[in-house]
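[recover] target loaded
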C-alpha cells in the first residue's frame, strides 16, 4: 500500500510573516492524518520552514536545485545546501522551469541525479501542454520525459523518488484534469516503470498536480494510480490545503 503524499508548491510567493501563520496552521492541522504532507517554499524561507516544522509531521523541500555540486554558478543552490536546511524533497522539472527557464529533459535528469546523490527525494514533474494533448501526444511526451530520467538513472532510482503528473494546461488555470484523464496517464506511467521493474512500479508514488481544489481532491485521489497531489495555488490558503490533505487521508 502506497502512503499518499500531498506536497505544496508555493512558487514565488510568501513572506516571513505570512509563512509563519500558514506553517503553524498546516502543522496543527495535519497531526492526525495518515497521509504525508510536505511544503516547498522559496529558497530563502527554507530556514524558516526548518525552524517551524522540525519535529512535526510536515516535511519540507525546495522547488528546484542546481545540477552542479558547487562552483561558479551565480544564484544557483546545490543539493548539499538544501540538506543543510533539512529538506526531504525537491521538485525537478516543474513545467515552469522547463518552459520559462529552458530546462531540457537532460538538465532535469541531471538535477534528479544531483538530488539523489545528496539523499534528497526528487519529485519528478512531467506533463503535456494543451497543444500536445490536442495533437494526441500526451502519452509520448510523458513517456519521453520519464525515459530521460530512466535512461540516466535506471529504474532502481525510482524506488527513492516521486513522480508528479502535471498537465501544463491544468497548472494555475483553474482547469483540473478529470479523474479519468489523470488516472489514464498515471496508469501509463506505472506501466512504463513496471515494464522495467514491477516492484519499483508498485511502490512508486505518482502525484497529480494542476488546479487541485478541496472540491476536486477526493475524487482525484480516489483513483487507483493517484497517490496524492502536488498543489500550487491552494497550498497558499491553509483551509484549502488542509482540506486537500484530508481528502488524501
Ligand atoms: C503547481 O504549480 O505545481 C500546481 C499544480 O499549481 P496549481 O495547483 O496552482 O495548478
Amino acid at each position: 500500500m502506497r502512503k499518499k503524499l500531498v506536497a505544496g508548491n508555493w512558487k514565488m510567493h510568501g513572506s516571513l510573516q505570512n509563512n509563519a501563520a500558514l506553517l503553524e496552521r498546516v502543522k496543527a492541522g495535519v497531526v492526525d492524518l495518515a497521509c504525508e504532507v510536505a511544503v516547498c517554499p522559496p529558497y530563502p524561507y527554507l530556514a524558516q520552514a526548518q525552524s517551524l516544522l522540525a519535529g512535526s509531521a510536515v516535511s519540507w523541500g525546495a522547488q528546484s536545485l542546481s545540477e552542479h555540486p558547487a562552483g561558479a554558478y551565480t544564484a544557483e543552490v546545490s543539493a548539499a545546501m538544501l540538506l543543510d536546511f533539512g529538506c526531504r524533497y525537491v521538485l525537478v522539472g516543474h513545467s515552469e522551469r522547463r518552459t520559462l527557464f529552458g530546462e531540457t529533459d537532460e538538465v532535469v535528469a541531471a538535477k534528479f541525479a544531483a538530488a539523489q546523490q545528496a539523499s534528497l527525494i526528487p519529485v519528478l514533474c512531467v506533463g503535456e501542454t494543451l497543444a500536445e494533448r490536442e495533437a494526441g501526444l500526451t502519452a509520448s511526451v510523458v513517456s519521453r520525459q520519464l525515459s530521460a530520467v530512466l535512461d540516466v538513472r535506471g529504474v532502481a532510482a525510482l524506488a527513492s523518488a516521486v513522480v508528479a503528473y502535471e498537465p501544463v494546461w491544468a497548472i494555475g488555470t483553474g482547469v483540473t484534469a478529470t479523474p479519468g484523464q489523470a488516472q489514464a496517464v498515471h496508469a501509463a506511467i506505472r506501466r512504463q516503470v513496471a515494464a522495467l521493474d514491477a516492484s519499483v512500479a508498485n511502490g512508486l508514488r505518482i502525484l497529480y498536480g494542476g488546479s487541485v481544489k478541496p472540491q476536486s481532491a477526493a475524487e482525484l485521489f480516489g483513483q487507483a494510480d493517484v497517490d496524492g497531489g502536488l498543489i500550487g495555488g491552494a497550498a497558499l490558503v491553509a483551509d484549502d490545503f488542509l482540506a486537500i490533505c484530508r481528502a488524501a487521508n
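[recover] notes: The longest strand covers residues 121-126.
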